[in-house]
Specification:
Helices cover 37% and strands 14% of the residues. It is an alpha+beta fold and 209 residues long. A 4-stranded antiparallel sheet has the order 2-3-6-5, with no helix packed on it. Strands 1-7-4 form a 3-stranded antiparallel sheet, with no helix packed on it. Helix 3 runs antiparallel to helix 5. The longest helix is centred in the last third of the chain and has 20 residues. The radius of gyration is 20 Å and the shape is elongated.
Amino acid sequence: MAQGDTSISICNQALLLLGDESITSFTDGTSASQACSIMYDLVKNSTLGIFSWSFTVAKVELARSTSTPASEWTYEYILPSDMLTGVPRAVRTSAAANSPLVRNYEINQSTSGLSVLMTNETDVFIDYQKAVPEAQMPPYFITLMVYQMAWHLAETITDQTTKSEYWRSIALGTASENFRGGWLRQAMSMDSSGTPPSVISDYLLTDIR
């Protein structure tokens, strides 16, 4: 894991690549710190959710809600608050190895506003991607985060769209690669060593910009 890395150190590495001064916090009064404070969590969560990174995968038994779904389902189970994508990677009725997958369920909101999984199953176990702190991120992911922040900060810091395009290509590759190249491809390859292959979902920040 990348011991000692923080949101500030990641932003400062990105700012260094862009030729700007370091910040001391997200509230130190500089224009760079303001830009970092606005962009960092969005970039972090989107980058964590772009791929089934091995260091984000968790398994848990869901707690059944005391509420009864106002729908065709019999039970509702409260989803973890640290879930990244809002959708489990797998749903099972047992923690046993190779237990069968549950196909009949629905992700919705309870009457209290919590995210829940609704089903007729009496026991529910899920695999899911969770948010993790920077200290639990491996070095290859920290590097990806630095390049991602350099991309998203570039136009604001340098006032040059070409700088933004350059750092996007370093982070994600080119449009001809469907933005699945660059350091992202290297990071996925390192992360997948010894684990089954995973499929990348659409990258929302690319779509919005």
